[in-house]
């Protein structure tokens, strides 16, 4: 009997150790470190709660154990080198590869076994946000509500008192005015009454009496009206400060400012074409195929994460992208962007000529004229600090005078490869032709003021 009890106790102890060993499979990593590693290595293609480029990874350890009878060692092999695992003929590895459109997962030989354990712990037991602070906030909110009611009641009483006081003061002032009027009438003499009869009683009488002054005044008013009309005509088509809302909110501050995305990644034709085109939605999808929600730290006033996530969904709707299946449905919708910068039809402007041939010259000229507002990208000379704009605004007036002034003050960059070849035989001639510029050739010297350069 004693022997049975002894073996029974040993059996229970062994069973307990077995359970603890099995549980440790899911608790042998650090979830907080795993969260950092997950965001750095996995978040581009995976989320815990939804499918992206790859499957949702929430509870992946338990799911593989239950559905495929695969342990944590299989996950270690898959994460470190999934290509080698597939090449070995592993059935499930090849099944996953086929299921997700044969998109190979990156290999992570740099991750240690402990790093992978930390990531898997995060997918199994992600840190839960503390709720105590929220509860305390709710309790405080209840007390504040009572205080707010008392405050509002006191403000209403004060407003009533102030209103009654103002009405009383207004009544006193009216009474005083009436009394003063009576006193003035009592003090009028016969001499004053006769003088009142000689006063001008109408505008026509006043004009007949002082008609020469009236003519001068009308002449001045006519000149002012002519100047006003002329000034209005001169500013037709000038829309400096124009800031329209777009059908899909796109913050240049977040993309070009915080994330340092180069202007020409989206506006690729600005460097090699006449027009800087509006990027197609496929350009947006180069990044947003894998970025389905906003996880940045910057928020515009009045905006929250839900707002940005909804705007990303508009991109998916326009391109016909189904994030669940990670495939295009073929059902697309046009996006009616509102154009901001638009030269008149009678004006020729070539982006490539300015961005390629004039890049360094324009940047240098702008920084000399604006030492406290220097630029690092040629685009900013005309379009302003776009990387700080949430909604793009027309930064300059783009008048003919504005362009001519730039051509008169911007020095030609003779060291630019394009200019060096093109003006190889003209440099000395230009220096002799414009000796007053001390060898510095500005754009006006190479035809920058010729009418036919911009109007044809």
UniProtKB/TrEMBL annotation:
It comes from the Bacteria. Residues 1-27 form the signal peptide. The keyword Transport applies. The chain crosses the membrane at residues 160-178, 216-238. One of its GO terms (molecular function) is electron transfer activity. The keyword 4Fe-4S does not apply. This is Quinol:cytochrome C oxidoreductase.
């Amino acid at each position: 009997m004693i022997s049975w009890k002894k073996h029974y106790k040993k059996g229970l102890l062994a069973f307990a150790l077995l359970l603890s060993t099995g549980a440790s499979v899911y608790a042998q990593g650090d979830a907080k470190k795993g969260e950092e590693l997950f965001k750095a290595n996995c978040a581009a293609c995976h989320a815990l709660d939804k499918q992206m480029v790859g499957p949702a990874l929430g509870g992946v350890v338990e799911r593989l154990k239950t559905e495929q009878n695969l342990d944590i060692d299989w996950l270690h092999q898959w994460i470190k080198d999934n290509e080698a695992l597939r090449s070995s003929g592993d059935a499930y590895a090849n099944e996953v590869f086929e299921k997700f459109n044969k998109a190979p997962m990156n290999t992570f030989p740099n991750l240690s076994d402990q790093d992978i354990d930390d990531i898997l712990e995060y997918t199994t037991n992600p840190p839960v946000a503390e709720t105590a602070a929220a509860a305390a906030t709710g309790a405080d909110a209840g007390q504040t509500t009572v205080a707010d009611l008392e405050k509002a009641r006191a403000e209403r009483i004060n407003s009533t008192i102030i209103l009654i006081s103002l009405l009383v003061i207004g009544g006193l002032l009216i009474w005083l005015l009436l009394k003063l009027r009576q006193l003035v009438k009592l003090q009028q003499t016969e001499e004053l009454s006769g003088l009142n009869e000689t006063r001008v009683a109408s505008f026509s009488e006043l004009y007949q009496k002082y008609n020469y002054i009236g003519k001068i005044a009308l002449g001045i008013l006519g000149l002012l009206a002519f100047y006003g009309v002329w000034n209005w005509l001169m500013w037709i088509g000038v829309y400096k400060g124009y800031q329209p809302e777009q059908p899909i909110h796109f913050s240049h501050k977040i993309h070009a400012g915080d994330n340092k995305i180069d202007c020409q990644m989206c506006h690729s034709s600005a460097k090699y074409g006449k027009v800087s085109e509006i990027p197609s939605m496929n350009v947006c999808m180069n990044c947003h195929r894998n970025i389905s929600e906003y996880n940045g730290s910057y928020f515009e006033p009045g905006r929250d994460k839900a707002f940005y996530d909804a705007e990303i969904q508009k991109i998916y709707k326009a391109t016909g992208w189904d994030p669940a299946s990670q495939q295009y449905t073929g059902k697309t919708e046009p996006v009616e962007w509102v154009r901001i910068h638009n030269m008149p039809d009678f004006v020729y402007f070539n982006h490539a000529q300015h961005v390629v041939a004039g890049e360094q010259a324009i940047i240098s000229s702008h920084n000399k004229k604006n030492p406290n507002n220097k630029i690092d990208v040629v685009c900013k000379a005309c379009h302003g600090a776009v990387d700080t704009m949430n909604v793009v605004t027309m930064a300059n007036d783009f008048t003919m005078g504005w362009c001519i002034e730039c051509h008169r003050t911007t020095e030609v960059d003779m060291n630019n490869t394009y200019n060096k070849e093109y003006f190889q035989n003209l440099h000395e001639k230009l220096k002799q032709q414009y000796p007053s510029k001390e060898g510095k050739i500005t754009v006006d010297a190479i035809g920058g003021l010729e009418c036919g350069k911009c109007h044809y």
